[in-house]
């Protein structure tokens, strides 16, 4: 009997693994390419914090002026947030991804030439627009798949992995006395692979295969369900509490995440007096913590409850930032950066996971696309504010500023709805769609009614 038990356990694991593979095999290409997009985003954000002081020196500007790059990037993100739903309706989710990836690649090519600063600012706007479309698209695509919560956590973990290697790449270039814009040569090559991979994978996927079929909202028959015009869909999506509060919550969250990741290198070199080459890998500890949090703590979050665990993570984040701010030892700061990264790690994917459970399927792409793109605008808005304030008070101001953003997150999280039971979700869906007066059918390529 003792010999059979391990064999039975091994057999059960093998059967479960085979079943998991059979379920996810049709989505394998989409998983790989969306995770690659996440890595590219991470490398972009992780490297930018390290090259920022070099950009400032190259153009001979202070923190307030160089922070305009963040502001223009924000404008790109926010503009994409408000038109993402319309673009998806016109071009489909695949078309929106192609457009975003094309803008992304073009922006890197333009940034590579190190044009005059005003032109750089304009290029950052196009970069933000393209990345926002991709960001919204990959989150929606992954959330449509089976095991969406696990896959979303891994998606954002791959972002953390990219952000982990970004500072290492930038620091290695500086160690070889190469210019800051060489980073954009590398990023441009990665973005070209990204565009080609998206086209290869998604060109064979019909719009119907990208509709919301795997969230916990009850399925409906598209031939009998009235579907609103794009304007009505957007209006209905924005009326949901999880859409507008989730967008504001993620705006603050991404602001904290990228403010720390983008400015802590300057904090460690200017305030702590750290070596400019050695501090790059130390910043990577923060992104390593972010990756760890999304891989490991994502499971813990689901097991013990999303709402209560996010409260805990926010408290830990405040404590870790306080230590980095007040303890003047670089080694302690590095350890706490890992802790802060780990605490922040599960927050974004957990928010998307909750939205996938509470948003009606007809409104899912519009709702999650908006809150993802709008929220990601925090990656530029709050680092810009940090740099502007730092001109007067010094870069140390990033620490209390980050704490204030976490407090704002805490307040918004109180009002984020908890995942509902299927019956409650159905009632919420009917209420969200009840105000429709104009009903149309959106014809897919196969002639069936679909939401694209």
TrEMBL record:
**One cellular component (GO) term of this entry:** endomembrane system
Entry keywords, A to Z:
Membrane, Transmembrane, Transmembrane helix, Transport
The record's Gene3D superfamilies line, in alphabetical order, gives:
MFS general substrate transporter like domains (1.20.1250.20)
Which cellular compartments is it found in? Endomembrane system
Q: What is its main location?
A: membrane
Q: Which PROSITE patterns match?
A: MFS
Q: Does the keyword Transferase apply?
A: no
How the protein sits in the membrane? Multi-pass membrane protein
Q: Give the residue spans that cross the bilayer.
A: 33-52, 64-88, 108-133, 154-175, 181-202, 242-265, 285-302, 309-328, 334-356, 363-387, 393-416
Keyword match Zinc-finger? no
Tell me the InterPro entries matching this sequence. Answer: MFS, MFS_dom, MFS_trans_sf, MFS_Transporter
Domain Major facilitator superfamily (MFS) profile: from-to ranges = 30-420
One GO molecular function term?
transmembrane transporter activity
- Similarity comment: Belongs to the major facilitator superfamily.
How is this protein named in the record? Major facilitator superfamily MFS_1
Task: Please give the organism.
Answer: Jimgerdemannia flammicorona
